[in-house]
Predict the 3D structure of the following.
Amino acid sequence: MEKKNEQQVGLKREMGLFGGIGIIAGIVVGSGIFYLGSYVLERTHMSMGLALLCWIVGGVVSILGGLCFAELGACDPAAGGMVVYLDKAYHPVVGYMFGFTSWLLSGAGSISAVAIALPTALQGYFGFSEMTIKIIAIVLIIALTAYNCFGIKLGALLQNVSLVAKLVPIAIIVIGALIMGRQTPDLSLIPAGYDGGIGGIIGMIAFATVATLWAYEGWTNANAVAEEIKNPGKNLPGALIIGIGSCTLLYVLFNFAIYRVIPHAEIVSMIGEGNLYLGTEVANRIFGGLGGGLVLAAMLIAMLGSANGMIIAFARYYYAMAVEGHFFKSQAKLSKKYQVPTNALIWQAVICIVLVLLRNLDQLTSLVVFSGMVFNTLVVIAVIIYRKKFPNLERPYKAWGYPVTVVISVVLFAGLMINTFIEDPVTSIIGLVVPALGAVVYFIFDAKMKKEKAQQ
């Protein structure tokens, strides 16, 4: 009886609009803002104009997907986000495959990667050994997990504070570069010396846009905490649109600011020598030694906020899976006092720690990119399925331009998936094998549940 009452209490709605924006921007704006611009330039044959266009295209793709997620989150504001939508639109096994992949690999791997990246950023100052880095990463995971066991309100507060704290030094660098920069960047959309056709340009844009999507990764996680957002029909769509839109503007301005300070020839030389952190170079040139400190502070705070946001969001997926019935029952339990999925948070931390001990940063950051795009595409298509299966469901927000925007989103995601499979087939195959393993586990639980019901 006590268990039933605990379940009825449910999660607390204590997060407002800014909290939702904090979850999105807090996860999205990580250390990638400082180095991913180099990869985008490489993939556009060092064309500044094409590179900026790709950052805009990446933002547009994310916003189009965000509009679809906003409709689903507003009409079905349940904890678990994508797990719930995939369950209802297709079959519970599909949502389970996504949640299982996140639990075992992609979600835990993302948290572990950021936790390792934070002390790695300090390695040049303190000379940390590899084992010291792993120990610091484990302590960070344990500390943030323990902190988030005391309620979503505290978790959202840290997210909001870290968001503001990291945006201040980034804003100082961008404004300083735009004002003090003396370069007039060539924003032509044709790379210097390029003699190919329009097809080659389009292929270049697609390949470089995939790199930008690494920087935008994380915007889907606001839906995971929809059950804890006040007035989700209004605040969730607002958080998605404002959050993704703001990140797009920030990325475009940050990269343009780099072009204003560092001459094109020097950028080419730096990237060729493996120096990818162009933002750090900009800060050093404008502010001297203080600039390096600003970048380091922004990177550390960005990674802290990103790790905190992922710890909050991912645990809600596993909670939703357990509530649905095909996962470990313990992960469906909520803390009586704080109404957070404490067991899901703790088990998530355990898996993260195991991954930290077993893998290095490069291995962790390459895990399961392809499967993420597969499930994002399925969720976008779910908007159409929801409208057909649940026509009477109240929809406080409807995706703009439906169904055109949905179709465009699916086509864009499909194109990016095909491109990723061609460029990185091994990661793509892993991204399909792990969800398939999740399906096997689902049917094992399903058979167990049916057996228990038959014995009652």
Remarks:
- Residues 1-9 have pLDDT under 50 and may be disordered.
